[in-house]
Specification:
The chain is an alpha/beta fold and about 280 residues long. It is about 40% helix and about 15% strand. It is built from ten helices and eleven strands. The strands form three sheets. Strands 1-11-8-7-5-6 form a six-stranded parallel beta sheet. The protein has a three-stranded parallel beta sheet with strand order 3-2-4, sandwiched between helices. Strand 9 and strand 10 form a beta hairpin. The longest helix is centred in the first third of the chain and has 23 residues. The structure holds NADP nicotinamide-adenine-dinucleotide phosphate.
Length: about 280
């Protein structure tokens, strides 16, 4: 019998706990400040930013939103991010991607000091994660670790397979699992014998962006299956990278889409802003 790991419930619980911690910090040191920079009118980005600002409100974090027009120049956005980097009231800086065409995102992100890089995307933070040092961890894989932890799922010595090697999900996920003493295989579009590799996994994390790609024959009996994917199926319905209906019958634990990894991501962003604020007063 499988168990669903309810990301929505866990995220709500974590946000409530975080709110108390943020309140105590605010009383002692002043507000936790998160800057959110949105350039242009991309509708999906507008929704993401709105949700992030809402989550700040729920957790007592002060959001500082900066809306820039689509024709903002490279110099203007760089000037804004540089001033946020210097600002002591701002503990975390988030630049919503993608930036409008013509802007160099790498140069903009490069201006965020790694201590304020709450997305955990910077080379410093990824390098620290690779070396198992103190860092700010990319929110989605960090959320997955919290989900595994919430169910006390043992990782040490286990076979973990990560599908997808993006810098923001797959690679940091593989590093986190490695740091937790799992034996990790990181798969991608060129991987040979993918189905067999997946079928050996005690823990299978799918982050490829292919609707219902992981089918029951790719899953070991009793595996833990974490679905990071966010796709639309043939009827336009939101679905993950895992064929939930067939895979759930073999899995010991499985995450749904929606209501699984998704709600954890923004929660971990709030968590990272709080970590950054705490470190700023050490
Ligand atoms: P991405 O940058 O497009 O990377 C996809 C990865 O999957 C690549 O490494 C690619 O391999 C691999 N891949 C693609 N097709 C494959 C196949 N048929 N077999 C094996 N590997 C394959 O995607 P991403 O940003 O990591 O996102 C992955 C999924 O997670 C998307 O559905 C995205 O929407 C979702 N997501 C969800 C959240 C959340 O909060 N829930 C957050 C971020 C992302 P190559 O490297 O060889 O091209």
């Amino acid at each position: 019998m499988y168990k669903i790991i309810d990301g929505k419930a866990l995220a709500a619980k974590m946000r409530a706990a975080l709110k108390e911690e943020v309140q105590a910090f605010t009383a002692a040191h002043g507000e936790v400040g998160l800057a959110v920079v949105l350039a242009g009118n991309d509708p999906a980005s507008q929704v993401y930013v709105r949700n992030k600002i809402k989550a700040c409100g729920e957790t007592g974090i002060r959001s500082h939103a900066f809306y820039l027009p689509a024709d903002v120049t490279q110099a203007q956005i760089e000037e804004l991010v540089s001033s946020l980097a210097e600002n002591k009231d701002i503990h975390g800086i988030l630049v919503q991607l993608p930036l409008p065409a013509g802007l160099n995102a790498e140069r903009v992100l490069g201006l965020i000091p790694y201590e304020k890089d709450v997305d955990g995307f910077s080379a410093e933070n990824i390098g620290n994660l690779a070396m198992n040092r103190r860092t700010l961890v990319a929110c989605t894989p960090f959320g997955v670790m919290k989900m595994l932890e919430s169910e006390n799922i043992p990782l040490r010595g286990k076979n973990a397979v990560v599908l997808g090697r993006s810098n923001i999900v797959g690679k940091p996920m593989a590093m986190l699992l490695t740091n937790a003493d799992a034996t990790v295989t990181l798969c991608h579009s060129k991987t040979e014998n993918l189905r067999e590799i997946c079928a050996r996994a005690d823990i299978l994390v799918a982050a490829i962006g292919r609707a219902k790609f992981v089918t029951a024959d790719m899953v070991k009996e009793g595996a833990v299956v974490i679905d990071v994917g966010m796709n639309r199926d043939e009827n336009g319905k939101l679905c993950g990278d895992v064929d939930f209906e067939s895979v759930k019958e073999k899995a010991a634990y499985i995450t749904p889409v929606p209501g699984g990894v998704g709600p954890m991501t923004i929660t971990m962003l709030m968590h990272n802003a709080f970590i950054a604020a705490k470190r700023s007063v050490e």
